[in-house]
């Protein structure tokens, strides 16, 4: 089983155990991360730990965009919100360069995965139109 197939299997298993359909799985992920609040149209959990990052992101990212968002973050940081690129200094889940630009979303950008997720989703939407379009670009260029 490939890594992608394993991830899809894991997500499907989580959705099944959370109550069946994808919407119920996303609701379960949001409550597991912490109580979500609406801010600027995106759900933000306060604070989201590194361990809860993927579940929080799945609750924040539209279902049809999730696979692309997950693929980008997996490639960029391996879902490590403290990942640092040694050569460029890019930081966090989405490898923002400079990392401090995530402060536009929250002053806790260095430590809160939820803030980084919100910034990443906004970046992908603003620059490419969607995570799906950002992933398409990433597949061609291996950066976004």
From TrEMBL:
Alphabetized InterPro entries for the sequence: Lysozyme-like_dom_sf, Transglycosylase_SLT_dom_1
Signal peptide: none
Pfam family, one: SLT
Gene3D superfamilies: 1.10.530.10
Limits of the Transglycosylase SLT domain: 66-135
Superkingdom to which the source organism belongs: Bacteria
Name the UniProt record assigns to this protein: Lytic transglycosylase domain-containing protein
């Amino acid at each position: 089983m490939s890594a992608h197939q394993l991830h899809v299997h894991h997500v499907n298993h989580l959705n099944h155990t959370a109550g069946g359909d994808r919407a119920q799985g996303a609701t379960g992920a949001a409550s597991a991360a912490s109580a979500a609040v609406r801010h600027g149209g995106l759900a933000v959990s306060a604070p989201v730990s590194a361990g809860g990052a993927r579940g929080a992101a799945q609750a924040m990212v539209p279902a049809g965009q999730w696979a692309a968002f997950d693929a980008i973050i997996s490639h960029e940081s391996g879902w490590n919100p403290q990942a640092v690129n040694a050569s460029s200094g890019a930081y966090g889940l989405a490898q923002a360069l400079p990392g401090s630009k995530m402060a536009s979303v929250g002053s806790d950008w260095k430590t809160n995965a939820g803030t980084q997720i919100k910034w990443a989703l906004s970046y992908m939407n603003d620059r490419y139109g969607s995570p799906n379009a950002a992933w398409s670009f990433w597949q061609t260029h291996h950066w976004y």
